[in-house]
Amino acid sequence: MAISVGLRLTPALAAELPRIASMNVCTDQLLLTLADPGQILGLSRFSRDPWQSWAASDARRYRILSGGAEDILVLKPDVVVASLFDKRSTREFLKEKGFHLVEFGVPRSLDEVKDQIRRMGAVVGHPDRATAEIARLDDAITRARQAATGKHYSVLPLSRRGWVSGSDSLVSSLLSEAGLFNAAGDLGVTSGGYASLEAIVSARPDFIVVSEAGDHAEDEGSAFLLHPALERFYPPSKRIVIPEQLTVCGGVMLADALDVLVKELKRVSR
């Protein structure tokens, strides 16, 4: 049943909407965006982590679940939403107990992201909200394409210890939608993998895409990005910064990620 966003729910109407528990940080964020607050019984134990969740502050209003089956058994939700990467034994146990489990995969393209937004919109009973969020994402894609028109930049998404998001990844889809070329293919990286410092420097992409700026490394993993060789070839003017919480999951936050990309392209193109 579709409910208009601006419609005040009567008790009878609200009672028809499913009560939902989320087991995964990515389903958390879809749920927080598309469901009514009263529908949300609990969120994953990572829902308040600002490094993983774009909606971490909103998540503080809700119960945190353990990740196991026990608290879901107590809450008795109408629907449980989860990722296919959540613990399989827990998911199977909940199914055996008769719970309605809706499982989401990991999207690798923006088209798959849109499908998941539609699916969650149907699950929560608010398909109109899903349609609005997809329209917002499409508008952000258009802005990103306009910003990159005629530039033909090659970029390399790079993170801790030299991990590269490959050509068959959500981040790559995000970049290609904006008209940018993911240089991971030049390194032989498809879904994702580690690349040596020497290989990265030899590939010489126009820019690297990182999750944070700054000159401080908290550990050895992040220190890779501050290696003198990388800093020499990729100073701040050659680094496109997109916060990690905007790209960890496939969801409505990707519209914000694309708008950040537009701002970064304007900055580095000066």
UniProtKB/TrEMBL annotation:
PROSITE patterns: FE_B12_PBP
Superkingdom to which the source organism belongs: Bacteria
Residues covered by the Fe/B12 periplasmic-binding domain: 19-270
Pfam families: Peripla_BP_2
Gene3D superfamilies: Nitrogenase molybdenum iron protein domain
Name of the protein this chain belongs to: Iron complex transport system substrate-binding protein
